Input
Amino acid sequence: MQLGIIGLGRMGANIGRRLMKCGHTVVGYDANPAAVKSLEGAIGVASLEELVKKLEAPRAVWVMLPAGKITEDAIAALGKLLGKGDVVIDGGNTFFKDDVRRAHALHRHGIFYLDVGTSGGVWGLERGYCMMIGGEKAAVDRLDPIFRALAPGAGSIAKTPNREKSDPRVTEGYMHAGPAGAGHFVKMVHNGIEYGLMQAYAEGFDIMRGRNSDHLPDDERFDINVADVAEVWRRGSVVASWLLDLTAISLAKSEKLEEFSGKVDDSGEGRWTIQAAVDEAVAAPVITAALYARFRSRSGNSFGEKLLSAMRKEFGGHIESAIPVHKAKDDDQ
Output
Protein backbone atom coordinates (compact mmCIF):
# COMPACT_ATOMS: atom_id res chain seq x y z
CA MET A 1 0.00 0.00 0.00
CA GLN A 2 0.91 3.66 -0.30
CA LEU A 3 1.20 5.93 2.71
CA GLY A 4 2.11 9.57 2.94
CA ILE A 5 4.03 10.58 6.08
CA ILE A 6 4.26 14.16 7.29
CA GLY A 7 7.00 14.63 9.89
CA LEU A 8 10.19 12.61 9.46
CA GLY A 9 11.67 12.94 12.92
CA ARG A 10 12.77 10.03 15.11
CA MET A 11 9.49 8.13 14.97
CA GLY A 12 8.09 9.34 11.64
CA ALA A 13 11.18 8.30 9.71
CA ASN A 14 11.35 4.89 11.40
CA ILE A 15 7.67 4.27 10.70
CA GLY A 16 8.48 4.89 7.04
CA ARG A 17 11.50 2.59 7.13
CA ARG A 18 9.57 -0.25 8.75
CA LEU A 19 6.77 0.06 6.19
CA MET A 20 9.22 0.03 3.28
CA LYS A 21 10.94 -3.06 4.71
CA CYS A 22 7.52 -4.74 4.50
CA GLY A 23 7.04 -3.74 0.85
CA HIS A 24 4.85 -0.65 1.25
CA THR A 25 5.44 2.62 -0.62
CA VAL A 26 6.13 5.78 1.40
CA VAL A 27 5.81 9.37 0.25
CA GLY A 28 7.56 11.56 2.80
CA TYR A 29 7.46 15.26 3.65
CA ASP A 30 9.19 17.28 6.34
CA ALA A 31 9.80 21.01 6.70
CA ASN A 32 13.51 20.10 6.93
CA PRO A 33 14.71 19.02 3.45
CA ALA A 34 17.60 17.08 5.02
CA ALA A 35 15.10 14.83 6.84
CA VAL A 36 13.34 14.09 3.54
CA LYS A 37 16.62 13.28 1.85
CA SER A 38 17.72 10.96 4.67
CA LEU A 39 14.70 8.67 4.27
CA GLU A 40 16.23 6.40 1.65
CA GLY A 41 13.79 4.46 -0.51
CA ALA A 42 10.92 6.87 0.05
CA ILE A 43 9.47 9.27 -2.51
CA GLY A 44 10.53 12.61 -1.08
CA VAL A 45 8.43 15.73 -1.69
CA ALA A 46 8.83 19.41 -0.90
CA SER A 47 5.24 20.35 0.03
CA LEU A 48 1.92 19.00 1.23
CA GLU A 49 0.45 19.69 -2.19
CA GLU A 50 3.10 17.56 -3.86
CA LEU A 51 2.60 14.78 -1.32
CA VAL A 52 -1.13 14.58 -2.06
CA LYS A 53 -0.47 14.54 -5.83
CA LYS A 54 1.95 11.62 -5.50
CA LEU A 55 -0.64 9.44 -3.75
CA GLU A 56 -3.32 7.46 -5.55
CA ALA A 57 -6.92 7.77 -4.36
CA PRO A 58 -8.16 6.74 -1.90
CA ARG A 59 -5.19 8.32 -0.14
CA ALA A 60 -3.88 7.82 3.38
CA VAL A 61 -1.64 10.36 5.11
CA TRP A 62 0.01 9.78 8.48
CA VAL A 63 0.80 12.97 10.44
CA MET A 64 3.67 12.41 12.92
CA LEU A 65 4.26 15.84 14.41
CA PRO A 66 4.34 17.29 17.94
CA ALA A 67 0.93 17.93 19.48
CA GLY A 68 -0.28 21.50 19.16
CA LYS A 69 -0.36 24.14 16.46
CA ILE A 70 1.97 22.39 14.01
CA THR A 71 -0.28 19.31 13.93
CA GLU A 72 -3.43 21.43 13.89
CA ASP A 73 -2.17 23.40 10.88
CA ALA A 74 -1.07 20.28 8.97
CA ILE A 75 -4.43 18.54 9.42
CA ALA A 76 -6.36 21.69 8.49
CA ALA A 77 -4.29 21.96 5.30
CA LEU A 78 -4.91 18.31 4.46
CA GLY A 79 -8.63 18.87 4.89
CA LYS A 80 -8.48 21.27 1.95
CA LEU A 81 -6.23 19.08 -0.22
CA LEU A 82 -7.71 15.60 0.24
CA GLY A 83 -11.01 14.28 -1.07
CA LYS A 84 -13.86 11.95 -0.28
CA GLY A 85 -12.73 8.56 0.97
CA ASP A 86 -9.22 9.69 1.88
CA VAL A 87 -7.84 9.10 5.39
CA VAL A 88 -5.91 11.37 7.74
CA ILE A 89 -4.02 9.59 10.52
CA ASP A 90 -2.66 11.45 13.54
CA GLY A 91 -0.02 9.26 15.17
CA GLY A 92 1.32 11.83 17.64
CA ASN A 93 0.38 12.36 21.27
CA THR A 94 -2.69 14.49 20.64
CA PHE A 95 -5.34 15.36 23.25
CA PHE A 96 -8.29 13.06 22.54
CA LYS A 97 -10.88 15.86 22.59
CA ASP A 98 -9.04 17.51 19.70
CA ASP A 99 -9.41 14.24 17.77
CA VAL A 100 -13.18 14.28 18.24
CA ARG A 101 -13.37 17.84 16.91
CA ARG A 102 -11.12 17.13 13.91
CA ALA A 103 -13.00 13.96 13.00
CA HIS A 104 -16.27 15.90 12.84
CA ALA A 105 -14.68 18.65 10.72
CA LEU A 106 -13.14 16.21 8.20
CA HIS A 107 -16.28 14.06 8.08
CA ARG A 108 -18.13 17.00 6.51
CA HIS A 109 -15.78 16.66 3.52
CA GLY A 110 -16.07 12.87 3.36
CA ILE A 111 -12.56 12.41 4.80
CA PHE A 112 -11.91 9.75 7.43
CA TYR A 113 -9.87 10.62 10.54
CA LEU A 114 -7.98 8.05 12.60
CA ASP A 115 -6.16 8.79 15.84
CA VAL A 116 -3.41 6.28 16.46
CA GLY A 117 -1.78 6.17 19.87
CA THR A 118 1.68 4.90 18.98
CA SER A 119 4.06 3.36 21.53
CA GLY A 120 7.53 2.16 20.68
CA GLY A 121 9.69 5.25 20.63
CA VAL A 122 13.07 5.09 18.96
CA TRP A 123 13.01 1.28 19.19
CA GLY A 124 9.98 0.92 16.94
CA LEU A 125 11.91 0.21 13.76
CA GLU A 126 13.36 -2.93 15.34
CA ARG A 127 10.64 -3.94 17.81
CA GLY A 128 7.53 -2.63 16.08
CA TYR A 129 4.88 -0.23 17.39
CA CYS A 130 2.06 -0.99 19.79
CA MET A 131 -0.93 0.93 18.39
CA MET A 132 -4.27 1.97 19.82
CA ILE A 133 -6.52 3.17 16.98
CA GLY A 134 -9.60 5.37 17.10
CA GLY A 135 -11.93 6.09 14.18
CA GLU A 136 -14.44 4.54 11.82
CA LYS A 137 -14.17 0.78 11.37
CA ALA A 138 -14.24 0.97 7.54
CA ALA A 139 -11.10 3.11 7.45
CA VAL A 140 -9.33 1.04 10.11
CA ASP A 141 -10.04 -2.20 8.25
CA ARG A 142 -8.94 -0.75 4.92
CA LEU A 143 -5.57 0.27 6.34
CA ASP A 144 -5.04 -2.98 8.23
CA PRO A 145 -2.00 -3.95 6.08
CA ILE A 146 -0.29 -0.73 7.23
CA PHE A 147 -1.02 -1.33 10.90
CA ARG A 148 -0.09 -5.00 10.69
CA ALA A 149 3.27 -4.12 9.16
CA LEU A 150 4.02 -1.59 11.89
CA ALA A 151 2.87 -3.78 14.79
CA PRO A 152 5.38 -5.93 16.71
CA GLY A 153 3.47 -9.18 16.10
CA ALA A 154 2.73 -11.89 18.64
CA GLY A 155 6.40 -12.77 19.03
CA SER A 156 7.37 -15.18 21.80
CA ILE A 157 4.93 -13.80 24.40
CA ALA A 158 2.81 -16.59 25.85
CA LYS A 159 -0.83 -16.57 24.78
CA THR A 160 -3.35 -15.33 27.34
CA PRO A 161 -5.91 -18.02 28.21
CA ASN A 162 -9.59 -17.57 27.27
CA ARG A 163 -9.01 -15.08 24.43
CA GLU A 164 -9.88 -17.47 21.59
CA LYS A 165 -12.99 -15.47 20.59
CA SER A 166 -11.40 -12.02 21.01
CA ASP A 167 -10.05 -9.72 18.30
CA PRO A 168 -6.89 -11.44 16.98
CA ARG A 169 -5.28 -8.08 16.11
CA VAL A 170 -4.77 -7.40 19.81
CA THR A 171 -2.33 -10.29 20.18
CA GLU A 172 -0.37 -8.83 17.25
CA GLY A 173 0.13 -5.56 19.15
CA TYR A 174 -2.57 -3.26 17.75
CA MET A 175 -6.25 -2.64 18.40
CA HIS A 176 -9.28 -0.71 17.22
CA ALA A 177 -10.12 1.04 20.49
CA GLY A 178 -13.36 2.70 19.36
CA PRO A 179 -14.56 5.88 17.60
CA ALA A 180 -12.47 8.97 16.96
CA GLY A 181 -10.58 9.99 20.09
CA ALA A 182 -10.58 6.52 21.67
CA GLY A 183 -7.11 5.63 20.37
CA HIS A 184 -5.42 8.68 21.84
CA PHE A 185 -7.47 8.37 25.02
CA VAL A 186 -6.10 4.86 25.64
CA LYS A 187 -2.57 6.03 24.75
CA MET A 188 -2.96 9.00 27.11
CA VAL A 189 -3.77 6.67 30.01
CA HIS A 190 -0.91 4.39 28.89
CA ASN A 191 1.49 7.31 29.25
CA GLY A 192 0.01 8.27 32.62
CA ILE A 193 0.66 4.73 33.86
CA GLU A 194 4.16 5.00 32.40
CA TYR A 195 4.77 8.05 34.64
CA GLY A 196 3.86 6.00 37.71
CA LEU A 197 5.96 2.98 36.74
CA MET A 198 9.00 5.12 35.99
CA GLN A 199 8.63 7.00 39.27
CA ALA A 200 8.43 3.74 41.25
CA TYR A 201 11.64 2.46 39.65
CA ALA A 202 13.37 5.81 40.19
CA GLU A 203 12.44 5.96 43.88
CA GLY A 204 13.38 2.33 44.51
CA PHE A 205 16.81 2.64 42.94
CA ASP A 206 17.37 5.94 44.76
CA ILE A 207 16.62 4.19 48.09
CA MET A 208 19.09 1.41 47.30
CA ARG A 209 21.81 3.82 46.23
CA GLY A 210 21.26 5.89 49.38
CA ARG A 211 21.84 2.91 51.67
CA ASN A 212 25.56 3.75 51.78
CA SER A 213 24.89 7.08 53.47
CA ASP A 214 27.23 8.41 56.19
CA HIS A 215 24.12 9.13 58.27
CA LEU A 216 23.41 5.42 58.79
CA PRO A 217 25.05 3.07 61.33
CA ASP A 218 28.10 1.31 59.90
CA ASP A 219 26.57 -2.16 60.18
CA GLU A 220 23.39 -1.05 58.37
CA ARG A 221 25.19 0.53 55.42
CA PHE A 222 25.24 -1.41 52.14
CA ASP A 223 27.12 -0.46 49.00
CA ILE A 224 24.54 -1.82 46.54
CA ASN A 225 25.56 -2.20 42.91
CA VAL A 226 22.33 -0.82 41.39
CA ALA A 227 23.37 -1.74 37.84
CA ASP A 228 23.58 -5.38 38.94
CA VAL A 229 20.22 -5.11 40.69
CA ALA A 230 18.59 -3.85 37.49
CA GLU A 231 20.14 -6.72 35.57
CA VAL A 232 19.14 -9.47 38.01
CA TRP A 233 15.58 -8.13 38.32
CA ARG A 234 15.20 -8.41 34.55
CA ARG A 235 15.53 -12.19 34.88
CA GLY A 236 12.51 -13.78 36.53
CA SER A 237 11.50 -10.95 38.85
CA VAL A 238 7.83 -9.97 39.17
CA VAL A 239 8.84 -6.33 38.49
CA ALA A 240 10.53 -7.16 35.18
CA SER A 241 9.45 -4.97 32.25
CA TRP A 242 10.79 -3.21 29.18
CA LEU A 243 11.24 -0.08 31.33
CA LEU A 244 13.46 -2.13 33.63
CA ASP A 245 15.38 -3.37 30.58
CA LEU A 246 16.00 0.25 29.62
CA THR A 247 16.98 1.08 33.20
CA ALA A 248 19.57 -1.70 33.09
CA ILE A 249 20.92 -0.33 29.79
CA SER A 250 21.22 3.16 31.27
CA LEU A 251 22.99 2.00 34.45
CA ALA A 252 25.35 -0.28 32.52
CA LYS A 253 26.43 2.76 30.52
CA SER A 254 26.86 5.00 33.56
CA GLU A 255 26.06 3.76 37.07
CA LYS A 256 26.18 7.27 38.58
CA LEU A 257 24.30 8.87 35.64
CA GLU A 258 26.57 11.90 35.86
CA GLU A 259 25.65 13.04 32.35
CA PHE A 260 22.05 13.74 33.46
CA SER A 261 20.91 16.74 35.47
CA GLY A 262 17.68 15.07 36.59
CA LYS A 263 15.38 17.80 35.29
CA VAL A 264 12.48 15.66 34.04
CA ASP A 265 10.12 17.05 31.41
CA ASP A 266 6.51 16.07 30.91
CA SER A 267 4.97 16.12 27.44
CA GLY A 268 1.34 16.58 28.43
CA GLU A 269 -0.19 13.14 28.59
CA GLY A 270 0.22 12.80 32.36
CA ARG A 271 -1.63 16.07 32.91
CA TRP A 272 -4.40 15.01 30.52
CA THR A 273 -4.75 11.65 32.27
CA ILE A 274 -5.15 13.33 35.63
CA GLN A 275 -7.70 15.77 34.19
CA ALA A 276 -9.66 12.82 32.79
CA ALA A 277 -9.57 11.22 36.24
CA VAL A 278 -10.94 14.44 37.75
CA ASP A 279 -13.70 14.57 35.11
CA GLU A 280 -14.66 10.97 35.95
CA ALA A 281 -14.19 11.33 39.74
CA VAL A 282 -11.66 8.47 39.62
CA ALA A 283 -8.82 8.52 42.16
CA ALA A 284 -5.35 8.54 40.55
CA PRO A 285 -2.91 9.25 43.41
CA VAL A 286 0.10 7.41 41.95
CA ILE A 287 -0.02 9.08 38.53
CA THR A 288 -0.68 12.47 40.14
CA ALA A 289 2.27 12.10 42.51
CA ALA A 290 4.50 11.00 39.63
CA LEU A 291 3.60 14.12 37.64
CA TYR A 292 4.23 16.37 40.65
CA ALA A 293 7.60 14.68 41.15
CA ARG A 294 8.54 15.77 37.63
CA PHE A 295 7.56 19.33 38.48
CA ARG A 296 9.70 19.18 41.62
CA SER A 297 12.67 17.80 39.69
CA ARG A 298 13.12 21.13 37.96
CA SER A 299 14.32 22.82 41.14
CA GLY A 300 16.98 20.43 42.48
CA ASN A 301 17.62 16.82 41.53
CA SER A 302 18.19 13.39 43.05
CA PHE A 303 19.73 10.23 41.62
CA GLY A 304 16.19 8.92 41.07
CA GLU A 305 15.35 11.90 38.89
CA LYS A 306 18.52 11.37 36.89
CA LEU A 307 17.33 7.80 36.35
CA LEU A 308 13.98 9.11 35.09
CA SER A 309 15.83 11.24 32.54
CA ALA A 310 17.96 8.27 31.56
CA MET A 311 14.87 6.08 30.99
CA ARG A 312 13.21 8.80 28.86
CA LYS A 313 16.35 9.02 26.72
CA GLU A 314 16.49 5.24 26.24
CA PHE A 315 12.89 4.65 25.15
CA GLY A 316 12.10 7.89 23.37
CA GLY A 317 15.36 9.63 22.60
CA HIS A 318 14.24 12.51 24.84
CA ILE A 319 17.03 14.97 25.65
CA GLU A 320 16.78 17.04 28.81
CA SER A 321 15.64 20.56 28.05
CA ALA A 322 17.40 23.53 29.55
CA ILE A 323 15.40 25.06 32.42
CA PRO A 324 15.82 28.88 32.54
CA VAL A 325 17.39 30.16 35.76
CA HIS A 326 14.44 32.45 36.56
CA LYS A 327 12.04 29.51 36.08
CA ALA A 328 14.01 27.39 38.52
CA LYS A 329 13.82 30.17 41.08
CA ASP A 330 10.08 30.42 40.61
CA ASP A 331 9.77 26.69 41.26
CA ASP A 332 11.66 27.10 44.55
CA GLN A 333 9.05 29.47 45.91
